[in-house]
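Lab meeting, item 3. Inverse folding demo.
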């Protein structure tokens, strides 16, 4: 009966409509270990929580997303929201965690303790209950569980919290959201997603439902004021100014003999550089408390209150030297071919969505230069068109103009069939003997690469595993080059017509050409136009160019460095680039990396069959 009395007393109380952060910090929610900051909940040291709690209070808002670094208090926001609505706006509440055992742990570690620490809810807790289904005496039920279908397909709820939803099995976020459907129609539902960035292992960004949900919301980025110049900036680990220079957490560059970062030396020099005035900020309580005091969210794009997304990085509350150590360690691993630590750094520490291809794309800096493709380039010596055959008669192609040891892209794209190849060559004024076709795929037969080359006077080219190839001089001496002596591709090999006609075929060292392309890129002699193809084609080009990279292994025992090129499915632009370089070597615009320097006389003596 005490309960009934309480209910009457509650009903007579005027409804407390204060914002959740005020209500909770007014002694209404007390926190216990394992929460780090125990005692009465308080947002004064983490002001970036306040607008998030306000969004959860906002009746116009149906979805709130928190994209946050590991252990940054994001889950606490969910717990406070749970208490606030259970005390003041009760309704069915479903908490979903990454797995069933973690849901159970979290319930006893955090949810139960927080509910008990909130007197307005604690009085409604029944004497006995199941952790997975807690029915309060107000009639509202709190469900807790992992993302199993059986948990997500039962009764409707008004509130839904999806914790660490970056790792749910495919389709489960949507499945869970179905449960607020009835309340959504009445505009009373609330979905709260709290998670680090994705995608989960073996998924791409396109397959990441959390990424989709986050980007649908109006994005809010936390920004703070510089104590030197008073201008605002985002407190992020690293940013880039328009001129390409970096700002954010900075350190002096010290490397070891094997090329690895020297962690201890670098970490001793860490500071934060303002993007505007370039002045350093030191990692001390004063900097971080000033950042907290002046911080505010910057809204990106149109402000729609229906779905809102919040993002902040761990630079605001994590020791910078430790972050630099993690980053440099990840960079050392990257150098050896292990890209996972870098992806994890982005996803967990910076809370930035990152998959393998988006990581590689940001890792390659192509030099963009303002030049007009149709204007004459005085340095031009020659131009070449290279084509790479795919299935269904589809070709990737690129045309580049070459000066001495330097090249500019004139075009890149896809085309279909022999007729299109001719059109590309005509459009860019490339002579037939400067058209190269990769003969790695479908070389033979009437419609094969060899036959096409025969018909049109083009050259067949093929990458090979070797490093160097012997060429015999007329005097019998052998010299080495990065490509094999000219051979001949027979389109009718193995048929009756065998031996009737041949196309010129050059086999080259993939590894050598990869290396030359990379060093041209690194030394800014591989130029790309600022005004290139349309946006989609440029993105495709960037993706393909960055999908092949050099990996280095250092053997501690022998002190030897071994490197190799890691290829991927979609790196055709790299093969095209290799064949451009091959043409440039054949035309003496680039020196062969293998050949010993020859005198003019010796050069003429090189056998050409
Ligand atoms: Zn400044």
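The presenter then showed the designed sequence:
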């Amino acid at each position: 009966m005490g309960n009934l009395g309480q209910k009457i007393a509650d009903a007579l109380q005027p409804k407390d409509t204060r914002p959740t952060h005020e209500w909770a910090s007014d002694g209404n929610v007390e926190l216990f270990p394992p929460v780090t900051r125990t005692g009465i909940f308080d947002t004064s040291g983490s002001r970036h929580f306040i607008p998030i709690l306000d969004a959860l209070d906002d009746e116009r808002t149906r979805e709130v997303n928190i994209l946050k670094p590991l252990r940054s208090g994001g889950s606490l926001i969910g717990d406070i929201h749970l208490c606030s609505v259970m005390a003041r706006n009760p309704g069915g509440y479903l908490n979903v965690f990454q797995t069933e055992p973690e849901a159970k742990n979290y319930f006893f570690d955090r949810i139960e303790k927080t509910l008990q620490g909130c007197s307005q809810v604690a009085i409604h807790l029944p004497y006995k209950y199941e952790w997975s289904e807690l029915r309060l005496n107000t009639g509202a039920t709190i469900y807790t569980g992992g993302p199993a279908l059986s948990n997500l397909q039962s009764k409707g709820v008004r509130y839904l919290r999806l914790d660490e939803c970056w790792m749910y099995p495919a389709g489960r976020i949507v499945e869970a959201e179905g449960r607020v459907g009835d309340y959504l129609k009445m505009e009373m539902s609330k979905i709260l997603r709290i998670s680090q960035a994705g995608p989960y292992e073996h998924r791409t960004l396109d397959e990441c439902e959390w990424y989709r949900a986050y980007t649908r919301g109006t994005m809010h980025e936390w920004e703070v004021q510089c104590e030197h110049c008073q201008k605002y900036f985002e407190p992020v680990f690293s940013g880039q100014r328009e001129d390409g220079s970096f700002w954010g957490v900075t350190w002096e560059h010290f490397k070891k003999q094997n090329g690895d970062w020297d962690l201890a030396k670098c970490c001793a020099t860490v500071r934060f550089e303002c993007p505007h005035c370039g002045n350093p900020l030191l990692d001390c309580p004063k900097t971080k408390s000033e950042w907290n005091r002046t911080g505010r969210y910057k809204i990106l794009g149109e402000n729609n209150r229906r779905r809102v997304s919040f993002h902040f990085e761990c630079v605001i509350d994590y020791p910078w030297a430790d972050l630099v150590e993690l980053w440099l360690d990840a960079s050392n691993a990257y150098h050896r071919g292990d890209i996972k630590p870098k992806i994890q750094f982005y996803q967990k520490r910076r809370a930035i969505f990152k998959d393998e291809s988006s990581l590689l794309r940001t890792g390659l800096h192509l030099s963009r230069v303002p030049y007009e493709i149709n204007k004459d380039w005085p340095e031009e010596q020659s131009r070449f068109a290279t084509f790479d055959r795919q299935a269904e008669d589809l070709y990737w192609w690129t045309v580049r103009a070459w000066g001495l040891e330097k090249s500019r892209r004139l075009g890149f794209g896809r085309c279909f069939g022999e007729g299109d190849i001719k059109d590309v060559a005509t459009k860019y004024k490339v002579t037939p003997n400067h058209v190269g076709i990769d003969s790695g795929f479908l070389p033979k037969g009437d419609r094969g690469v060899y036959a096409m080359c025969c018909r049109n006077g083009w050259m067949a080219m093929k990458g090979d595993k070797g490093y160097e190839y012997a060429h015999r001089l007329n005097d019998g001496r052998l010299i080495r080059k990065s490509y094999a002596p000219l051979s001949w591709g027979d389109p009718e090999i193995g048929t009756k017509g065998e031996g009737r006609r041949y196309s010129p075929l050059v086999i080259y060292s993939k590894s050598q050409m990869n290396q030359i392309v990379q060093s041209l890129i690194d030394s800014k002699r591989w130029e790309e136009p600022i005004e290139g193809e349309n946006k989609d084609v440029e993105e495709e080009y960037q993706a393909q160019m960055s999908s092949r990279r050099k990996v280095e292994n250092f053997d501690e025992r022998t002190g030897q460095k071994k490197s190799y090129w890691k290829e991927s499915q979609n790196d055709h632009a790299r093969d095209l680039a290799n064949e451009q370089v091959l043409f440039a070597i054949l035309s003496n615009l680039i020196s062969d990396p293998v050949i010993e320097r020859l005198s003019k006389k010796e050069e003429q003596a090189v056998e050409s069959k």
